[in-house]
Structures are given as C-alpha cells and as structure tokens.
Amino acid sequence: MIVAIKRNKSKKLIKILSLLALIAMFAGYYFYMNITYAEQLQKETEVKQAIKLEEEKKDKEKKAVEKAILTEIEKAIDLVGQEHIRHVKIIEDKVIIICEPATNLDALMVRYGAMALIKRTLNEIIIAIDVNFILKSRLNAK
Fold it and tell me: Membrane spanning segments where (predicted)?
C-alpha cells in the first residue's frame, strides 16, 4: 500500500518566513551593534582629544610660569651684577640668590622692596624672593 502524505504549502511558507525573520533579526542586530560601536569610538576619540587639549593647555601654562620666573631671576641678577653672584637656587616657593659680601643691593631693594628678604653674614649675602610675588606681579602686568 502506498501512502501519500500531502504537505501544505502553508507549512513551507511558514518555515521560509520564520527563516527570513530570523535572518532579518540577526542582520538588524548586526547593524545596530555596528552603529553603537561607531558612536562609542567617536565618543572615546572626542574625550581623548579633549584630554589632550587640556594637557597641552596645562603644559603651555607651566612653560609660561617657568619662563616668567626665569626672566625675573635674570632681571634680579642683572640688578645685583652677575659678577657678584655665587649661586642661584629655587627652593620650594623661594628664589635664593647667594652673593658676595661687598655687593650693592640698592637696585634690588628698589625693585622688590620688603618682598626681598636679605640676610647678611660675614662670608655672603643671602637674598630670598618669593615666587608667588613674582607670579602675581607678572599676572597683574599682563
């Protein structure tokens, strides 16, 4: 005996449609993930660029402050006279200038006044100038 099974075309259609729906879902998920990944990369690059710009700005500020301090030290040395200077040091917030004992400090006193702390010993003269004073005077000048 031969048994014939009739298959409905609707079952084939349901299988094909379910397969197409599954493929469409995977494709949609793939494109969605591509878009979110691209957005995430873009945000990360923007953040990195912002951080880089801030670092460059801070570096420029540091260099400007350093340059201001060094030019002010050069002016102080020129006022005292370079031949009378033994050592120049920057310790914490002070610029320390060590001079010979027979140095004329009148020009330095006119420029810095009471902000230049002077200690005279038998062997040397120690002058301490506050770095914050230098920076404040530079910022007010600009």
Answer: 12-32
Q: Domain residues of the chain, as ranges?
A: 10-142
pLDDT tens profile 84-98: 999 999 998 999 999
Q: What distance in Å separates the CA atoms of residue 138 and residue 118, rounded to the nearest whole number?
A: 22
Map tokens 């102080």 to a residue.
Answer: 76
CB atoms within 10 A of CB 19: 10
Cβ(111)–Cβ(80) below 8 Å: no
> CA-CA distance, 6 to 2, in Å (whole number)?
13
pTM for the complete prediction? Answer: 0.66
DSSP of 17-46:
HHHHHHHHHHHHHHHHHHHHHHHHHHHHHH
The residues, ordered by sequence, that sit 6+ positions from 94 with a Cβ below 8 Å of its Cβ are 128, 129, 130, 131
Residue 129 backbone zone (phi > 0: left; psi -120 to 50: alpha; other: beta): beta
- The one-character DSSP state at 111 is H
Strand partners, 89: 96
Coil vs helix vs strand at 7? coil
Which amino acid, residue 73? I
